[in-house]
Specification:
25% of the residues lie in helices and 20% in strands. The protein is of the alpha+beta class. Helix 2 (55-61) packs across helix 3 (63-79). The longest helix is centred in the middle third of the chain and has 17 residues, at 63-79.
């Protein structure tokens, strides 16, 4: 059920402390941790502690928590000192867009050229 921890979800296991992660920030509603396969010098994932399969379903069901994820992504950029040179916040939705863990999450990327359009 949406919002409830899923036994087979890697990110739910990170929230529960069952799988280790390099946590850089944590709030009542979110956890931010370094990506284990970074695509940029700064690559931090910000996830809600509640389980929703993607950003759209999170925003529809729990808009305040979706806002918390975005706010924390901005705070990660400040903490990592990348806000001045710029950073990207990415939500991949669906396997065709590159989503591999079906628990809503934002990627905070910075520290290299981030070309447009992405792809």
């Amino acid at each position: 059920m949406a919002g409830e921890p899923q036994a087979d979800c890697l990110f739910c296991k990170i929230v529960a402390g069952e799988v280790p992660a390099t946590v850089v920030r944590e709030t009542e509603t979110t956890v931010a941790f370094r990506d284990i396969n970074p695509q940029a010098p700064t690559h931090v994932l910000v996830i809600p502690k509640v389980h929703h399969p993607d950003a759209a379903s999170l925003a529809a069901a729990e808009p305040q928590i979706a806002a918390d994820v975005l706010r924390e992504a901005g705070q990660v950029a400040l903490d990592e000192k990348v806000e001045e040179n710029g950073y990207r916040i990415v939500f991949n939705t669906g396997a065709g867009a590159g989503q591999t863990v079906f628990h809503a999450h934002a990627h905070v990327l910075a520290g290299r050229g981030l070309n447009w359009p992405p792809g």
